Description:
Pfam families: PAM2. The protein is mainly alpha-helical. The protein has one domain (4-92). It is built from 4 helices and 2 strands. The longest helix has 14 residues, at 66-79. It is globular.
Amino acid sequence: MEDVEHVDLAFLSNPKFLVTAMTRAQSQVIVVGEPVTLSVIGECRDIWKRFIEVCHEHGSFHGLEWEEYRRQCFSAESKLNPEAPEFVPRVCID
């Protein structure tokens, strides 16, 4: 196994890139992901929360009932340790 290399997640970890990716869409934006995780972790969590709220308002939030999403977000946020070190994903190169 070779050295572990840092992965730059670009728009997933940088608010400017995320907003650019969302606003450059020509016709629609489709996001496949776990909404609670996107909403409670990372520098982009506030952007994701607002994006998911707008999707809900327009009837395009699917896979989880709105009240269940809000309950899970509140529960997850109350369990987070603000003093914990930031998690930096890495990938192993074979």
